[in-house]
């Protein structure tokens, strides 16, 4: 069965960086891109970015461009989301998600599969 | 004006029906909308997709037949019949216009089962 397993919770100081991993299993890794969705405490959902596991191309929400970097390791079926210059507003649970339908080079919805979420806390 | 507008809260009695609405901004009128359910303390799960003509594609895993969607004009609605306690939580609509450039969510509706 499809599984997305994320790394554990992180606590960071403002200005630091955080790197969250998402390891996929149960399907052909290169056939589906991975998006990242975050949710600040008590708030709604926000799509933050996507990576093609096929060719490494990335897209991100305009407000995070320059601070977010997504990579993948095809040998371990893992994608990474690194967020730099952290601010308190980045405190959120970060989910990696996979679409229902196969799409190698385009961002696709709906997101049928969700990781368990990784809480990133930014606090001085 | 936000791309997707949802009322912040809704409530219904056990066994009753409720319709949750998601209204598209007029320039997003052709968008497909996906509904997600998030129970307290859990991650979101996909419910189903809806276009202007109604339900599109398969429902999410283990989504009961009590859940249905409809589309009319700029509204994309989710109806839950015979509400159960397990239906309580937040419901979010999300839009995908198919160009891969932007993905947005509505603010979410908190559904309370009375």
Give a verbal description of the structure.
The complex is a heterodimer of chains A (124) and B (114). Chain A is mostly beta strands and 124 residues long. Helix content of chain A is 0%, strand content 48%. Chain A has no helices and 11 strands. In chain A, the strands form 2 sheets. In chain A, strands 2, 4, 5, 6, 9, 10 and 11 form a 7-stranded mixed beta sheet that branches. The radius of gyration of chain A is 14 Å and the shape is globular. The mean pLDDT of chain A is 96. In chain B, a hairpin with a 6-residue loop joins strand 4 and strand 5. In chain B, 0% of the residues lie in helices and 51% in strands. Chain B is an all-beta fold. Classes of the chains: A mainly beta (124), B mainly beta (114). Chains A and B meet through strand 5 and strand 10 of A and strand 4, strand 5, strand 9 and strand 10 of B.
Q: How far do the termini of chain B sit from each other?
A: 32 Å
Order of helices and strands of chain A: EEEEEEEEEEE
Strand content of chain A: over 45%
The poorly predicted ranges of chain A are none
The global form of chain A is: globular
In DSSP terms, counting alpha (H) and pi (I) runs of 4 or more, how many helices of chain B?
0
From the helix content, strand content and strand pairing of chain A, which structural class follows?
Answer: mainly beta
Helix content range of chain B = under 10%
Radius of gyration of CA atoms of chain B, rounded to a whole number:
13 Å
Shape of chain B: globular
């Amino acid at each position: 069965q499809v599984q997305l397993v994320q790394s554990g919770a992180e606590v960071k100081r403002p200005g630091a960086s955080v790197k969250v991993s998402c390891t996929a299993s149960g399907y052909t890794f290169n056939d589906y891109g991975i998006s990242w969705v975050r949710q600040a405490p008590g708030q709604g959902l926000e799509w933050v970015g996507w990576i093609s596991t096929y060719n490494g191309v990335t897209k991100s929400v305009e407000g995070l461009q320059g601070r977010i970097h997504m990579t993948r390791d095809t040998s371990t079926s893992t994608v990474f989301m690194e967020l730099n210059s952290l601010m308190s507003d980045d405190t959120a649970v970060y989910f990696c998600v996979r679409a229902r339908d196969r799409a190698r080079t385009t961002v696709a919805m709906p997101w049928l599969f969700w990781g368990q979420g990784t809480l990133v806390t930014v606090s001085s | 004006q936000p791309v997707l507008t949802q009322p912040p809260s809704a409530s219904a009695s056990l066994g009753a029906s409720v319709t949750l609405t998601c209204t598209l901004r007029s320039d997003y009128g052709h968008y497909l909308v996906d509904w997600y359910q998030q129970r307290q303390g859990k991650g979101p799960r996909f419910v189903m997709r809806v276009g202007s003509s109604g339900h599109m594609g398969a429902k999410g895993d283990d989504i009961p037949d009590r859940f249905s969607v409809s589309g009319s004009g700029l509204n994309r609605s989710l109806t839950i019949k015979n509400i159960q306690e397990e239906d309580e939580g937040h419901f979010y609509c999300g839009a995908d216009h198919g160009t891969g450039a932007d993905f947005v969510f509505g603010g979410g509706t908190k559904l309370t089962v009375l």
